[in-house]
Structures are given as C-alpha cells and as structure tokens.
C-alpha cells in the first residue's frame, strides 16, 4: 500500500471523526470550520470537535463563556463569538488557545474583561472588541499580546485609558478607539507602538490632542481625529509623521491653523477640515503636498483669502470653501492651482471678485458662486478659461452684466443666472440677446425676470428693444427696484460621516452640497411666488388708475355741458335785454323830437 493511500485513509478518518462529533445545532464544513448560528443556541456546544481551525458562534443567545469550554482546541486559528448576548467571560475561558490568530467578540454586551483573559494568546494578530459596553481596560489586559497587529475597541463606553495600556504591543499596526467617551489622552499613550500605521479616535469628547502624542509614530499613515471638541492643534503635531496619507480633522472647534502645521507631509492625499471654526488661512499653513487632490474647508468662519494661500497645493483638483463668511478674495489667492478642476465658493458674503482672481486656475471646469451678495462682476473674470463648463451665479444681487462678459462664455455648457434682481433697461440688452441665443445653457430660464418697474415680472428673453428704451426713458429718478427673490442657499452637506460624500468634479458644487444638508438642487426646484403677487398687485393698481381716469373724464364732460347750457341761457337773456333797451331808446328819441317841436 502506497503512501498516497495511507494519507487518504488518514484524511478520511479525520473528516469522519469531525463530522461524527459535530453538534446538531451547528454545521461542520470540510475545511475544519464549524458554524453555530441562531437563537436556539443558548450555550457553547460542549461536544465540539477538538481539531477544528475556525469556530463561528453568531446571532445566538449565548450569555456566558465559561472556563475550560474551549481548552482542548489547541489547533483553533479563528474564533468569532459575535452579535450574541455574551456578557460574562471567565478569566481562563481562552486558556490553551495557543494557535489562535484571530479573535472577535464584537457586538455583544461585555462591560469588562478579566485581566488574565488573553494570557495564552501569544500568537494572536487581530483582536476585535467593538460594539460592546466596555467601560474600562485593566492595565495589564493587553500585555501578553506582543504579536498583535490590529486592535479595535470601536463603539464602547471608554472614558479613559490606563497609562501604558498598549506598551507591550510593539508590533501593533492599527488601533481603533473611535466612538467612545474619551475626554483626554496621555502624551505617552502611543509612545511604545512605534510601528502604528492607523490611529482612529474619532467621535469621542477630546478637547485637546497632546503635542507629543504622535511623536514616535514615524510610520503613521492615517489619523482620524474628526468629530471631537478639539479647539486648537500644535504646529508640531504632525512634524514627525512624514508618511501620513490621510488626516481627518473635520467637525471639531478648531479656530486657527498655525503656520507649519501641514508643512512636512509629502505623502498626504486626504485632508478634511470642514465644520470647524477656522477664521483665517495664512500663506505658510500648507507645505508641498504633491499627492493631495481634494481639500474640504466648507462650514467654517473664513472671512478672507490672502495671496498664495494654497500655492503649494499644485496637484489639487477639488477645493471646497463654501458656506463660510468670506467678504473678499485676494487676486492671487488661487495662484499655483494649475490642476484645479472644481472650485466651490457658494454661500459666502462676496459682493464682487477681482478680475484676475481665477487666472491661476487654467484648467478650471466648474465654479460655484451662487448664494453670495455679488452685485458686480468684471468683464474679464473668465477670460482665457477655455475649459470652463459650468458657472453658478444664481441667488446673488446682480442687476446687469458688462457687455464684454459674454465674449468669454463660448465654451460654457451651463450658466445659472436665475434669482437675481435684474434691472431691465437698455443696458441689459446684451444679456437679453445672449439669453435668446443660448437658452440651452441656462438653468431655470423661466425665472430670469425683471425686478424693476415698469417691466417687473416680465421674462427678459421676451423683452423687445422698444420696451427697454421705454423703460429707460420713464425710469424714476429714485431707484424703486423691487427685489423679487429670497436666498435659497445650499445646504451639504457635503457630508455625513467623517469623509465627505464623494462627488465627481462635475457635481461637487451641486451638493454640499451633501452634506452638511439641502444642496444646489434646491436652486433647481426653487419656486418663488413673490413675483406673481407683485404683478397681480401692479395690475390691480393699474386698473384702479384707469377707472379713476375714466371717472375724471366723465366729470369734466358733465361740467363742460353744464357750463355750455349756462352760457347759452345767459346769452339769450343778454340778447333779449339788448332788444328791450333798443326799443326804449327809440321811444325816448321820438318823444324828444316831439318836445323839441
């Protein structure tokens, strides 16, 4: 009998032995895996095969893991007891599991873990304790886990961490402490985990991050600090982390970004700073970041942008600075952004823009300027920008646009101009002509209407030159322009969890407006009944004036007729009197003659 036959017989016997020992509540698979699923399971089955490598106990009513129940499973590599009612674990329940590589106790009701629980798990590489109710960690709980690579305590009730809790895990690569109740971290919490690559502590109650917390983590690639209460960050925070690729700082209370904060981060490709209280961005904040493609700064308190604020971000393609308080932007604020495709500046307090402000963005495709207070735009604002596809200017205070402005829009596919208080006189003729020739490029063309008398409420596209000339001639000296619109500014929303909602470079300015959110879709669906009310009132007033004129004419005619009748009567009386006087005169003359005789 050959060796091949012997091996086959041995494997057959092993498989037969495994299946003969399989509990009726579970399923035993050929690959040495046992799956025990369902609410009918209320305890760990006592007759489990000893030679299995993968044991999964999921969605059960198991409440306790007792000492010794797994002690003979020395070959076990993977143990998952998840989404069950497990609340008690014996201090020796995991003894003898010397081969275990992966342990997950996620989704149970654990509140504490015995300090000696992991004492035999010297080969363990992954430990998942997420979605429990663990309120504290014993100081030496993780000490035996020198080979651990991944530790998750996500979604528990931790308020603090014992000093040195992770010191013995020198090989740790990933640490997740997110969604707990941590209020502070000791400066030396991570001092010994020098190989750490991912550190997540988002959605806690941290008010500050110690300056030296990340000092020894030269291999760190991702740090998640979003959704805390952090109000300031040291300029040296990331100075010793040159391999950082992702930094999440959104949804905090950060008021300022010190110079040099993002200086030595050549590998950075993701940086989120939205939903903070940042007021100012100085020139020296951002160092060279050739891999950074997106920068999210929406929902801050930024009041202005200075020259060269982003000049080191030469590869950035998406820049979101919407929903701030910007009143001015320096003419060179966007210098160096040669690869920028989309720029979102909507929902700020801008009243105008410098003619050269976009000349540092030669590849710009989409720009969102809606929901500002823009009253005037220079004619050459979009000159030399042949790649421009979409311009959003709705919900501003524009009354007209310079004639040369339209010469730069030949390549634009869409321009939104609705919900502005357009002043319809002869000066708006260039806009009227451009609208007539480019109806397909306009969003909500029906809302491009006049906001001044006597053409209030009329569609600009339907106006004639004669009407515009007449409006210019009869225009009141005192400007009585009536604004028909109210702002319907966006609101992201951009975004939701830590990471903003992902958008393509052709749609980011329409979200947000995720987010943090209504979005610019509100602008598309905007229905303003104010203009209809104004037009109705105007018609009623015109009808009242016409009625008054008719009445006045009738009264004047009546007066004229009465006066004519009176005049005729007086004339007839005067004539009659004249005849009588003549007769009396003749009689007197005759009598006088007789007397003379």
Automatic annotation (TrEMBL):
Residue spans crossing the bilayer: 546-571
Pfam families named in the record: LRR_1, LRR_8
Xref: Gene3D superfamilies: Ribonuclease Inhibitor (3.80.10.10)
Keywords: Glycoprotein, Leucine-rich repeat, Membrane, Repeat, Signal, Transmembrane, Transmembrane helix
Biased composition (Low complexity): 504-517
SMART domains attached to this UniProt entry: LRR_BAC (SM00364), LRR_TYP (SM00369)
Signal peptide: 1-20
SUPFAM superfamilies (UniProt xref): L domain-like
Cellular component, GO annotation: plasma membrane
Region (Disordered): 496-526
Name of the protein: Leucine-rich repeat-containing protein 15
Organism: Engystomops pustulosus (Tungara frog)
